[in-house]
TrEMBL record:
Keywords: ANK repeat, Repeat, Ubl conjugation pathway
ANK repeats: 67-99, 100-132, 133-165, 175-207
Organism: Hemibagrus wyckioides
Top-level lineage group: Eukaryota
Its job: Probable substrate-recognition component of a SCF-like ECS (Elongin-Cullin-SOCS-box protein) E3 ubiquitin-protein ligase complex which mediates the ubiquitination and subsequent proteasomal degradation of target proteins.
Subunit structure: Interacts with CUL5 and RNF7.
Keyword Magnesium tagged: no
PANTHER family (UniProt xref): ANKYRIN REPEAT FAMILY PROTEIN
All copies of domain SOCS box, residue ranges: 266-313
GO BP field: intracellular signal transduction
Protein name: Ankyrin repeat and SOCS box protein 12
């Protein structure tokens, strides 16, 4: 019987492979020098080092104790904008990954460094982060309530309806939640509204058969907001942005404590939307599908109607 070649690998073979992936001693030293200059925000020293070929070769190398990371991620983590711009000018990979598949942008968002976030996005960083990382910049910003950072991400085309990338075997109802869910549960009203304004689906729900097979049922954002007792402002926004108000509701004692939110839904069920409101929903849906929501200001209509389409007064 022929054995799979991988089953023949000894511990020594595996150790040898991992040793090949580690930077050489000289390279490790050079990387440390770069990271030291970055940590001290010494942009002059950093520029001098990068003018030498031996150091420039390390510009995308992972090094350091704990979680090895690239110099660009080190600059992002410290919020040192000048060093980050210097690295980018010398050819650093804007979406370089660390061993946790986190990009420098994800690190900057987690650290709440808005200047770093803007610089990376302008340099072409993927606003959605890495496809190999469980979380995403948008999910992180929505959870933390970082409106300015979330605005930057959405301006550069970040997806509004993302969810954590969890293996099928680890999936549960919680992992199906997207940014709207997260913003509502963590009480981040401004982020919640911002996501809706940028085209987030007010009825966002898990539709993947593999995941649904592992959980009893998944809930819409409205259903979740009612169950968690979110303020009525969240319910009103969902109604205004066209959420399905005819979902089955099981009134619990906890929900009765927030009768205002429940009553908003019940009143909406017996009061059809005005033609003007339905027209706004139709226009916004069309523009969202075409990824042209930012074109509202260029429409040949009065400013008052533009404001109405943008839900501003």
């Amino acid at each position: 019987m022929m054995l799979d070649p991988f089953t023949k690998m000894s511990l020594m073979d595996i150790t040898k492979i991992f040793s090949l992936l580690q930077p050489k001693e000289d390279e490790e030293h050079d990387c440390q020098q770069l990271n030291k200059a970055i940590a001290e925000d010494d942009v002059k020293c950093l520029a001098d080092l990068l003018s030498q070929e031996r150091y420039k070769r390390c510009i995308n190398s992972r090094s350091g104790w704990g979680i090895p990371s690239t110099p660009l991620k080190t600059a992002a983590a410290h919020g040192h904008l000048r060093c980050l711009e210097c690295l980018l000018a010398h050819g650093a990979e804007v979406d370089s990954l660390d061993v946790k598949a986190q990009t420098p942008l994800f690190t900057a968002v987690s650290g709440k460094h808005i200047g770093i976030v803007s610089a990376l996005l302008k340099a072409g960083a993927d606003p959605n982060g890495s496809q190999y990382n469980n979380c995403s910049p948008v999910l992180t910003a929505a959870r933390e309530g970082d409106v300015d950072i979330l605005k930057e991400l959405l301006y550069y085309g970040a997806e509004t309806d993302v969810r954590a990338k969890i293996p099928d075997w680890a999936t549960n109802a919680t992992t199906c939640r997207g940014p709207l869910y997260i913003a509502a549960i963590y009480g981040q009203l401004e982020c919640f509204k911002l996501l809706l304004l940028h085209g987030a689906d007010p009825d966002f729900n898990c539709k993947e058969e593999k995941i649904l097979a592992r959980i009893k049922h998944s809930n819409t954002v409205l259903d979740t907001c009612l169950k968690y007792g979110c303020q009525s402002e969240y319910i009103k926004l969902l109604i205004d942005f066209g959420a399905n108000i005819y979902i089955p509701m099981v009134i619990t004692d906890r929900m009765r404590e927030h009768d205002e939110a429940v009553m908003l839904v019940l009143r909406e069920r017996v009061s059809p939307k005005t033609l003007m409101s339905q027209t706004r929903l139709a226009i916004r849906k069309y523009l969202s599908t075409a990824h042209q929501l930012d074109m509202i200001d260029s429409l040949d209509i009065p400013q008052m109607l533009k404001n109405y389409l943008k839900h501003t007064t």
